[in-house]
């Protein structure tokens, strides 16, 4: 299977089975993210205890890329300390901006590494990074 097939399958799978897409009424913070150019709207829910993201989920609507990217991000940050989540966000955004391509450094992104290809599709970049920017804002507010 080539990278494009893996990318397509991951997007399809996360969009079809959004296990991380649930309301979290007892969240420490719920941060809204909106992409006016395509209508993606997410609410990222984080439950933080002693500088650790003990749980995370999201709600809202959007295209397959925004939903899948959000779900993959949540898989990566759940159980991580805030500083670790910030590092993951930083590496992801640098990957999308093509500022890093060191495979060892990118391994921290797990499946989200396959979203690297959206950097070649300018119209889809905002969809893929919406939740990551929303997470960055939420973490700043929680600290």
Q: Unreliable segments (pLDDT under 50, ≥5 consecutive)?
A: none
* Count of runs of 4 or more consecutive helical residues: 5
Gross CATH architecture: Alpha-Beta Complex
Count of β-strands: 3
Task: Quote the distance from N terminus to C terminus.
Answer: 42 Å
Please write the CATH class name.
Answer: Alpha Beta
The biggest sheet amounts to: 3 strands, antiparallel
Which class best fits the helix and strand makeup?
A: alpha+beta
Secondary structure: helix percent? 40-55%
Spatial extent as radius of gyration: 14 Å
Beta-strand fraction estimate = 15-25%
Estimate the global geometry from the Cα principal axes. globular
Q: What's the CATH topology name? A: Sufe protein. Chain: A
Oligomer: single chain
Please tell me the overall pLDDT: 91
Spatial sequence of strands, sheet with the most strands: 1-2-3
In N-to-C order, the SSE pattern is HEEEHHHH
The number of domains: 1
